[in-house]
Amino acid sequence: MRESGREVNQLRNIDIITNFTKHAEGSVLITVGDTKVICNASVEDRVPPFMRGSGKGWITAEYAMLPRATETRNIRESSKGKVSGRTMEIQRLIGRSLRAVVDLDAIGERTIWIDCDVIQADGGTRTASITGAFVAMVLALGKLVEKDVLKELPIKDYLAAISVGVLPDGTEILDLEYVEDSIAHVDMNVVMTGKGEFVELQGTGEEATFTRNQLMTMLDLADKGLNEIFKIQEDAIQSYKDMLDIS
Amino acid sequence: MRESGREVNQLRNIDIITNFTKHAEGSVLITVGDTKVICNASVEDRVPPFMRGSGKGWITAEYAMLPRATETRNIRESSKGKVSGRTMEIQRLIGRSLRAVVDLDAIGERTIWIDCDVIQADGGTRTASITGAFVAMVLALGKLVEKDVLKELPIKDYLAAISVGVLPDGTEILDLEYVEDSIAHVDMNVVMTGKGEFVELQGTGEEATFTRNQLMTMLDLADKGLNEIFKIQEDAIQSYKDMLDIS
Amino acid sequence: MRESGREVNQLRNIDIITNFTKHAEGSVLITVGDTKVICNASVEDRVPPFMRGSGKGWITAEYAMLPRATETRNIRESSKGKVSGRTMEIQRLIGRSLRAVVDLDAIGERTIWIDCDVIQADGGTRTASITGAFVAMVLALGKLVEKDVLKELPIKDYLAAISVGVLPDGTEILDLEYVEDSIAHVDMNVVMTGKGEFVELQGTGEEATFTRNQLMTMLDLADKGLNEIFKIQEDAIQSYKDMLDIS
Amino acid sequence: MRESGREVNQLRNIDIITNFTKHAEGSVLITVGDTKVICNASVEDRVPPFMRGSGKGWITAEYAMLPRATETRNIRESSKGKVSGRTMEIQRLIGRSLRAVVDLDAIGERTIWIDCDVIQADGGTRTASITGAFVAMVLALGKLVEKDVLKELPIKDYLAAISVGVLPDGTEILDLEYVEDSIAHVDMNVVMTGKGEFVELQGTGEEATFTRNQLMTMLDLADKGLNEIFKIQEDAIQSYKDMLDIS
Amino acid sequence: MRESGREVNQLRNIDIITNFTKHAEGSVLITVGDTKVICNASVEDRVPPFMRGSGKGWITAEYAMLPRATETRNIRESSKGKVSGRTMEIQRLIGRSLRAVVDLDAIGERTIWIDCDVIQADGGTRTASITGAFVAMVLALGKLVEKDVLKELPIKDYLAAISVGVLPDGTEILDLEYVEDSIAHVDMNVVMTGKGEFVELQGTGEEATFTRNQLMTMLDLADKGLNEIFKIQEDAIQSYKDMLDIS
Amino acid sequence: MRESGREVNQLRNIDIITNFTKHAEGSVLITVGDTKVICNASVEDRVPPFMRGSGKGWITAEYAMLPRATETRNIRESSKGKVSGRTMEIQRLIGRSLRAVVDLDAIGERTIWIDCDVIQADGGTRTASITGAFVAMVLALGKLVEKDVLKELPIKDYLAAISVGVLPDGTEILDLEYVEDSIAHVDMNVVMTGKGEFVELQGTGEEATFTRNQLMTMLDLADKGLNEIFKIQEDAIQSYKDMLDIS
């Protein structure tokens, strides 16, 4: 039994509010337990220098935490004048994950900027960011379809992420909250498509190691959790659901 | 008549949600029309080097906008690696304003960090930040009283801010939203205490000038608006209102 | 009576030496008591990216202190690798102030760079900078008229600045020197045109507040001081005085 | 058949030269095909601030490429003034991996600095870095044992890393060189201990996805390759091999 | 004959104004032709970390140009956020030169900060800086003697610098002004003591080379010029001249 | 007699390995005693902005040390986020030196990037860098001749560098290793062409001075050493030696 009373294979409550802010083409507030992330998707009509003339689009992500999203206040990265390694790792992960399910040729020379700003953190901010960012991105691209800029939604499949891990006593668990994350021996983030294929798999032993059996159990947990999350995403993108015809 | 239908001396709807995030000692979401700012107050048990040994406390503020708080996306200041002049100006203003109504000796060698993060912008973000930050700070200091760390709330008076300005046709108006702000010839921010004394007065002609008469009219407008705002603040700090005995 | 023997409404000695350095189009050494600032105006034949194609000109300012302009040595901002918030605030103020009295359309796509370098500081460096910068700018633009690049001096009015404040005993005073500035409860910078209209008004209570009556008294003091300064500026720009026909 | 003539499960030639430079406590040049990395381990008699007083040691890594380690010259990160996200990701990975097999309590308040400098790159620089860094670290810690600073080698197991991936035609391969890496649909780095347990698993679909079956095949390939590498490491640490009694 | 009418072995007019600014312990304005540099010496009662506990003092220098010291405006190094290689080279040269004639043990754990700020440049700013800095340093150390902080002036000899060079026609000249410097094939800076010994010698062929004979001629020119400069320095430090008993 | 047993006018063993890395157009590992530097020359088909349209080429150098090239580990400059003054001085020196012997007009609008990376340091890293960089540059330009991009090798003469110095006992010595460099009173770097003309001469008294006689002795030592080095370079560039017809 987990401290929160959750089963080992039980997700926290997940809620996705769409159109959370008014300016962004796609805007979402995703809540996973006590973790809350604003995911905004912005469309820019050009691509970074290394892609100009390719005819292809690009998706890139930025991630940040409000200084007091956490138990103790963190120094603001703009004040420090540089972005931490952890932040860079996360924003590269979010961007790479989203690009895996989008037809970049179909969006033309446009950049989709994804901004994930954590306003409250309780573990799993990077996976919540990916899950929310997918919805924000669908909303932004859906608008381009409505405006006849794109013919159809250039999205190949659903995409979501969740964490799994191994507690000190060896129990494998799904969706770690902060107190669990801080003691876990193994922490793994799984990014998966609606069809159940992997996009990213990042497993880390924290001064510890894990066996292939433990890996298998964790992947089963992730699979179960992500299938529940895909349903929540499906509800959130409601009006664009039919465009997202994946078969 | 203003585009929004407001009278020249009419505030936008103002709403203050308290305890907006769970970790900060004081947390507020302030909404002024379409401007929304999260104001978090954090208490740290030490002061910056230049104040050590003084026995006095310190209050400092940081301000930022989410990249997509605005009509078009702004580059994140952490990515740029430096904070803009505008941001610095605003955070210095917020900190100075709050320090004017706090008894710094009474809070001892502690720092109150104020984080104002604009999640949606439609003009007046710096004044909304000050107004919201005051409430967040009262909540944080109130908790110190409840925990018997402080004997009484070390706050000398209410504090709020509002903008006033002069439209191209010469009309003085209260509480400029973005479309007004971008065309106004004069833009003035007034920071005032509950007793009606000034803490800060920053009036700027935008490639234009203003007369002393216009100044007087703007100050009258600000006075009217701020008195309405003090009531909203009073409601927001409800449980600590009695501690804030200003007479 | 003030420590220096000055009356409350008495300026320090002000002196403006023109053509102080040889390369700048306009160069001035302004002395206000013991405050000395070199103000150089440079003309560049292009504007910043955000103004290209507008047909309008731009005026921008930079401000710095020599490390030993002050009682104790300050770390050089180039060594620190970043400009302080105070510096940014001041250079934005100088630029904005000058733009208010210049016909930017008339100067065409040119940038006037104003460099204010404080070589000795004794309070009032930002107001001395504005007063001196105005003269340097007139000299630089005057040369463009002499070279037939511009038809006439694109300046709408004189511009100068002065500080006023309130001492701890409640006395309002004009033109604060450092010892007064460091104890004053209120510090206000007034930027005014020759016609007596405000361009900028920045009043700040230093852990203190001020009333509307005090504001009025301070504005009267500023008005008196600035009218004396306009005469000194008029003498300094001697050869261009007739071009600056303001009526 | 691969372009290089290698079998799908065949490693490139791997060579580890020890004592490559004279100053470092542990110094290794590791060659994996055309990839060459200098791995230096330095011992410092203190730990970073966040660990002081813990009695525990720390291991941290830095990674860089010579500008012309690659086909076209890269801008030096010291000239750019900041470290890229890719570099940060890699150095965090190396440090985390090594910490998993070291008894940090046993090394006391010391930091082992690992510097991995790629002098020639042909794919797999991060895995070669980990494999070489392990040997450099053993050499450095071995010296501490010889000097009686440590009683025994505080290392729990061998540690090495290798890449596996999936080519566009679906073939899973071991140890990708650059031409393979640049076209692969899936790229996975596996960090494993001598006992065959995972320390890190980072699998990434490059605008592609992978199934659980493909994951299993890749893990089998990695397992085979890493067991060959452990033998090469065992030879390299020759004199300390007996100290590294893992049973 | 040189464009300026000077002989090949003729210095420009050199003038040293002492006590140029009021706060610095030693302050000098040195004028060499049209080159003008403010040299301020500040005394700080501690040394940099690498010298703490050594009982010795330290001398360090910073050098900067006002943006418009030159024909066209340079970007301010504080705005660029970094100091150029040229600036670093010069400030290291100034510091090293001064340290050669000071008894660092005698000044105790104090740092003498030398700030050389070029307000107008016409060639030879680094040599003028050294020559002026020596005087400023003597004034600052002299004050410490007057205050009985030091027993005697801890200076071993006079120190000055001058440039020599070779024009495209092969003529060796003394004290290059900007128009000469920009065409010279060889540029050499000579830093010498009153006794005629070298402290620094930096000769550079600008896409050209020089022979040993040319070197000898240039050293003779430098020797002549520097002996004239020592006399000017002697006059400048008047009241401390007797302290500087060099025999 | 020197600690190493060398004569005062004896070089350390010098070895130049060509084609050390595979990607660079010219690649050299130079060994001078225990000092080892990788010198890579890269050809880029464009010049920096300030030279565009000039038809001329450019040569620029970057220099770095591996963190553990030295006795104690240095902080990596990319981690510090800025390049030290020492590094800048050295890379400017290398670039300037090489440009003196190259016909920049003949190479057309191309940049030759020279990267000198010190992998092991024992004194004389800057002079070894110049000597090695010359060979790497010849190899790179030689390839352009072989590919018929250039008609002939645009090199005017051999170029090499060596250090000379004065020990505390007054002995002048050639080619200082680290233990000598750290105690020497005078340290001079001499950059010379095959014809025996100077390109750079940088002599520095370390809290000491030197006479003209000492200078002469040091130049004689340098001359002797450099003539030996030119022979080693000649061997290293073997296949291009005939192209480098200097008469």
Description:
Six copies of one chain form a homohexamer. Chain A has 247 residues and is of the alpha+beta class. The first copy, chain A, has one domain (14-243): GHMP Kinase, N-terminal domain (Ribosomal Protein S5, domain 2, 2-Layer Sandwich). The first copy, chain A, is 28% helix and 27% strand. Chain A is built from five helices and nine strands, in the order E-E-E-E-H-H-E-H-E-E-H-E-E-H. The first copy, chain A, has helices at 77-80, 85-99, 125-146, 178-181, 212-236; strands at residues 14-18, 26-32, 35-44, 58-65, 111-120, 159-166, 172-174, 186-193, 198-205. In chain A, the strands form two sheets. Chain A has a five-stranded mixed sheet with strand order 1-2-3-5-4. In chain A, strand 2 (26-32) and strand 3 (35-44) form a beta hairpin. The longest helix of chain A has 25 residues, at 212-236. Chain A is globular. The N and C termini of chain A lie far apart (38 Å). The relative contact order of chain A is 0.18. The mean pLDDT of chain A is 95. The B-C interface holds B 82, 85-86, 88-89, 91-92, 96, 99-100, 104, 188, 193, 195-212, 215, 219 and C 82, 85-86, 88-89, 91-92, 96, 99-100, 104, 188, 193, 195-212, 215, 219. Strand 9 of chain A pairs antiparallel with strand 9 of chain D.
What would the keywords be for this entry?
5-stranded mixed β-sheet; 4-stranded antiparallel β-sheet; homohexamer; Ribosomal Protein S5, domain 2; tRNA nucleotidyltransferase activity (chains A, B, C, D, E, F); 3'-5'-RNA exonuclease activity (chains A, B, C, D, E, F); 247 residues; alpha+beta; EC 2.7.7.56 (chains A, B, C, D, E, F); 5 helices
